[in-house]
Specification:
alpha/beta, eight-stranded parallel sheet, TIM Barrel, 10 strands, 10 helices, 331 residues, binds NADP nicotinamide-adenine-dinucleotide phosphate, two-stranded antiparallel ribbon
């Protein structure tokens, strides 16, 4: 049966300007790091993607290496684009990245022009599209001059293979330097994608100030700390959770007694706010106007609905903020 998107999709979620650019992103965006590889059925991935689009999520975030195996998440998106979303390409913001290991030999990772340009060509082929909306340098390369990496991003935009460029996992200092080079080349940096959540707040030291000064947007990844900032691990490890699965990025050693206690206390505050803990954790990020969108992952359609609802209640009282701060500072 052919797919028709929900007619009310643009009334369900706010769209926020990405820094000082012309581009708006949904307050909640969907990443395809987990649950869109060959380890999942195409049908389950399709269901998640179409449900997200029906709920107004216009931004899908990928990277060359998402899978497993690496590259398969882009292939999955390519199939869903060609089967169901072809007519809606202009309603979507699709991002990809290169930086981590993708293929053997000296040209398959880090930040050389050789790697970035050829990796994006491969990503476009896997997704079956002519351009991505945002292309990221996935991580800074300590051995390649930023002039070369940023020069590659500039060339990619000029070649029409990306509309905008972004940086991920760059420190504040590295961001300032890279953004300066991009500016001098005439290709502004649209956005930064750092890890940021209640349990990992490094960006608060100075990255968020740089992002604001430079007029960039910010899209935190793993805003739920891969699911730790939800109520799912309060009574053990559910069978259908990421921690119980094969992901090497979230293992049982992350779930210490102290953390469970902390999550329990946060959950109690969320309940007082009539929110799920996931909603409160996302709202806590979105309360800061420098945050354009929160980049979630999902394994079930219900998680999309739950997370989107966070965007309608992002105000916190002073008292709530103080209580949260106290809990986060413990242990
Ligand atoms: N730039 C980078 O270096 C980088 C690194 C990592 C990620 N990312 C990007 O960020 C995206 C998101 O990362 P992430 O998957 O770690 O994000 P996350 O949102 O912190 O964690 C996702 C997991 O949280 C659980 N979840 C989500 N919504 C929920 C809800 N409402 N209620 C209960 N549980 C919920 C699900 O766990 P279960 O699976 O257990 O159900 C889901 O798989 C990635 O897909 C990728 O696009 C970028």
């Amino acid at each position: 049966m052919s797919y028709t998107p929900d007619h009310s999709r643009y009334k369900q979620i706010p769209y926020q300007r990405c820094g000082k650019s012309g581009l708006k992103l949904p307050a909640v965006s969907l990443g395809l790091w987990h649950n869109f590889g060959e380890d999942k059925s195409l049908e389950s991935s399709r269901k998640l993607l179409l449900h997200a689009f029906d709920r107004g999520i216009t931004h899908f975030d990928l990277a060359n290496n998402y899978g497993p195996p690496p590259g398969s998440a882009e292939e999955t998106l390519g199939k869903v684009l060609s089967d169901d979303l072809k007519a809606y390409r202009d309603e979507l913001v699709i991002s990809s990245k290169a930086g981590y290991h993708m293929w053997s030999g000296p040209y398959g990772e880090w930040g050389s022009k050789k790697y970035l340009v050829s990796s994006l060509d491969q990503s476009l082929r896997r997704m079956g599209i002519d351009y991505v909306d945002i292309f990221y340098s996935h991580r800074p390369d300590p051995d390649t001059p930023f002039e070369e990496t940023m020069g590659a991003l500039d060339q990619i935009v000029r070649s029409g293979k990306a509309l905008y460029v972004g940086l991920s996992n760059y420190t504040a200092e590295q961001t300032s330097e890279a953004v300066g080079i991009l500016k001098s080349l005439g290709t502004p940096c649209l956005i930064h994608q750092p890890r940021y959540n209640m349990l990992d707040r490094w960006v608060e030291d100075d990255l968020l100030d740089v992002v604001e000064e430079e007029g960039m947007g910010c899209i935190p990844f793993s805003p739920l700390a891969q699911g730790l900032l939800t109520d799912k691990y309060l009574d053990g490890i559910p069978e259908d959770s990421r921690m119980a699965g094969r992901s090497v990025f979230l293992r049982t050693n992350a779930l210490t007694d102290e953390l469970v206690e902390k999550i329990g206390k946060l959950n109690a505050i969320a309940k007082e706010r009539d929110q799920s803990l996931a909603q409160m954790a996302l709202a806590w990020l979105l309360k800061d106007k420098r945050i354009t969108s929160v980049l979630i992952g999902v394994s079930k359609t219900g998680q999309i609905d739950d997370s989107i609802a966070a965007s309608s209640h992002t105000e916190f009282s002073e008292d709530e903020l103080e209580k949260i701060e106290e809990i986060l500072k413990q242990g």
